[in-house]
Amino acid sequence: MSDLQSDVIIVGAGLVGSSLALALAGSRLRVTLIDGRAPAPLPEDDSWDTRIYAISPGSQQFLTELGAWQRMPGDRLSPVSQMKVRGDAQDACLAFSAADVRVPQLACILENRLLQDALWQAVKAADNVQIICPAEPTHMALDGHAASLTLADGRVIEGRLLVGADGANSWVRAQAGITAAPRLYQQKGVVANFACERHHGQVARQWFFPDGILAWLPLPGNLMSMVWSTWDAQADELVALDADILCERVAQAGNHELGKLKLVTLAAAFPLRLLHLDRIVSHRLALVGDAAHNVHPLAGQGVNLGFQDACILARVLKAAGAGEDIGEHLLLRRYERARKEDILAMQTVTDGLQRLFNNDNSLLGWLRNTGLALTDRLGPIKHRLIRHALGSVDMVS
Ligand SMILES: Cc1cc2nc3c(=O)[nH]c(=O)nc-3n(C[C@H](O)[C@H](O)[C@H](O)COP(=O)(O)OP(=O)(O)OC[C@H]3O[C@@H](n4cnc5c(N)ncnc54)[C@H](O)[C@@H]3O)c2cc1C
Question: Ligand 1 pocket, 189 CB below 6 A?
C-alpha cells in the first residue's frame, strides 16, 4: 500500500533533476522530486560560489523557457564573447569569437548555487510537483505495474516511472543493476576564483599542457574563475598552497595575461572520471545527468549534457498519449535513442583531447600543436566545432 501516488518519481534535485521536474510542470503528470538535502540558502553577503559553470546558449534557452533563468540577477552573470585556446607551443593557438558565428555570446558563466536556487524556487511554485526533502530512499522496486520507492521514514511512493538524477555515484543506477566501470583520469579539477589586475575582456582562456588543462573563465567585473585539471598529486599540491603562492603559480601558468591575481574563494578539487553506460533506461527507469554519464570538464559540457537529457526526456513523456504507459521500456527507448549520439560524441571528443594533450609523447606534441594552429586556419571546421559547443538551440520545442 503506498502513501503517495505519483506518475514520475525523480530522485535527485540537483541542477538536472530540478530542471526535469520543472520541464514537466504544468503537464498532466504528477511529479515527486526527492533529495537527501535542500540547497543551502543563498548567502546575504556578495561572496562568490566556488562552483562555476559555463552554460551553453542551448541550455540558457531551455532554462529561460522553464522560467528559471529570469530568476537570477543579471549582474552575477558573465557572457563569453571570445575563446582563446593555446597548446604548449607558443604559436599554437585557436581563437574564435561569438561574432565569427553570429551569436550574441559563446556561453554564459554563472555560479552553481544561484542557478540551483533559481530552479528550486521555480519548482516550489509548480502545482503538479511535490518535493520531499530531506528524504533518504532505502529501497526501490520496478515491476510490470509500478515503480515504488521506500523512504527511511517508512513512507512508500508509487509511480509509473522512476528517474535517477542522483549524480555520479547514483544510488538509483546501482539499485537498477546498471553497472559500468568508470575510467578514472587520475586527475582532479582544481577550482578557485580570483580578482585580476587586468580585465578579462569577456575572453575565456584555455591552455593545454602535457600535465594538465588550465581554463580561466570570465566572471563579472575583474573576477575570473579557474578550472585547472591536472594529475592528482599536482592538484593536491595546488589546493594546499598558501594563497599568495597559488596566485603566483596560476598567474605564471597563464603567462600573466591578466596581471597579478588575488584569491577570492578557497581552492577546491574534484576527482575526474569518464563514465559511459550502454543503456540509460530500462523498464520503469530512466537516468539523467551525471547519473547517466560523466565527462572530463575540459569542454565545460557536463551539466549542459544533463539539461539536454532533461529537455528530451520531458518532451518524450509529455508527448505520450493518455493511454500510453510512460514507464514502458519501448517508450523510454525514444529518449535513450535521442540522447545516445550526443553523449557519445561529447565523451569521445573530451576523452580524445585529454589523451592527446596530457602526455609527454613528442610526436603527439607536434600533432596537437599543429592541429590547433591548422584548425584555427580552417574556417569551416572551426565554425562547425563552435556550433557544436554552443549546444543544440532546438532543445526546446
Ligand atoms: C571541476 C568541474 C568543473 C565543471 N564545470 C562544468 C561547466 O563549466 N559546465 C558544465 O556543463 N558542467 C561542468 N561540470 C560538470 C557538472 O558539475 C555536472 O555535470 C553536474 O553538476 C551534474 O548535475 P546533476 O544534477 O546530474 O548531479 P549532481 O549535481 O551531483 O546532483 C545530484 C543530486 O542528487 C542528490 N542525491 C544524491 N544521492 C541521493 C540519494 N541517494 N537520495 C536522494 N538524493 C540524492 C544530491 O543531494 C544532489 O542534489 C564540471 C564538473 C567538474 C568536476
Answer: yes
Check whether 88 has a pLDDT greater than 80: no
Return phi, psi of residue 234, to 5°: -70, -35
- Stretch 66-70: mean pLDDT, rounded? 98
Question: Is 197:259 a contact under the CB 8 Å cutoff?
Answer: yes
> What domains can you pick out in the chain, each with its CATH number?
4-41+48-182+274-389 (3.50.50.60)
Instruction: Check pocket membership of 116 for ligand 1, CB cut-off 6 A.
Output: no
Q: Please tell me whether residue 190 adopts helix, strand or coil conformation.
A: strand
- What's residue 392's pLDDT? 46
CA-to-CA distance for 393 and 158, rounded, in angstroms? 35
For residue 319, name the pLDDT band (cuts at 50, 70, 90): very high
DSSP code string of 164-206: E---TT-HHHHHTT-----EEEEEEEEEEEEEESS--TTEEEE
The finding on whether 185 has its CB within 6 A of some atom of ligand 1 is no
Is residue 140 lining ligand 1, measured as CB closer than 6 Å? no
Please state the atom number of ligand 1 nearest to the C-alpha of residue 189.
1
pLDDT in tens, 9-51: 999 999 999 999 999 999 999 999 999 999 999 999 999 999 9
Look at 1-5, 268-272, 313-317 and tell me which has the smallest mean pLDDT.
1-5
Nearest ligand 1 atom to the CA of 272 is 53
Hunting for cell 515504488 — which residue is that? Answer: 148
From 35, 83, 193, 294, mutation site for ligand 1 pocket: most ligand atoms within 8 A of C-beta: 35
Mean pLDDT to the nearest integer, 77-91: 87
Q: Which residues of 295-306 are buried (b: 16+ CB within 10 A; e: fewer)?
A: bbbbbbbbbbbb
Going from the Cα of 92 to the center of ligand 1, the distance in angstroms, rounded, reads 33
